[in-house]
């Protein structure tokens, strides 16, 4: 079984791109499954069920979604192998922009959209910087010049990534993506002992542990102060 990690900011079009790509896999007889990671709510699993692929979802709740991801990915791979999948796709919201759910030697795709703002590529952090491929969506509602400038900004942040423009509505570009993201010769049985590409932030402070009171007396651990000097 091959494993692909897909991440990107909320509403960037991850699910639409994955569904269009899966449709091209199904036409070629590739058995695909999806595990969706999110924070508080998602009904994207229903969209995957509609196209007939096995799907599971996990909500991190009060936990960081990417910490939740890495704490569960081994069991997710076991589930995919039990289902007899050829390809398992994990979709992660990547909400905090400081983490990256990518694993060494496992293909990683970041989805980002043209409408997110010209400086957004600089704000996303390791989720974009350490991706193997970057998929840019919503190109049909901006000008050619805007598409080119945005792609240039993405490339300046991650010059090694393969950049693709995909329309999540009509699927344009999805077949090409499917040919690049799937390796039929991969045989991933377990992730035991593998490593993440990027370490999670060590932001352990009193607020991480449930503190709600404001003031220096209640701030302990990893605390950083803003420089407000003139």
UniProtKB/TrEMBL annotation:
GO biological process: protein maturation
Lineage top rank: taxon: Bacteria
InterPro entries linked to this entry: CobW/HypB/UreG_nucleotide-bd, Hyd_mat_HypB, P-loop_NTPase
Organism: Haloplasma contractile SSD-17B
CobW/HypB/UreG nucleotide-binding domain segment(s): 4-164
Protein name: Urease accessory protein ureG
GO molecular function, one term: zinc ion binding
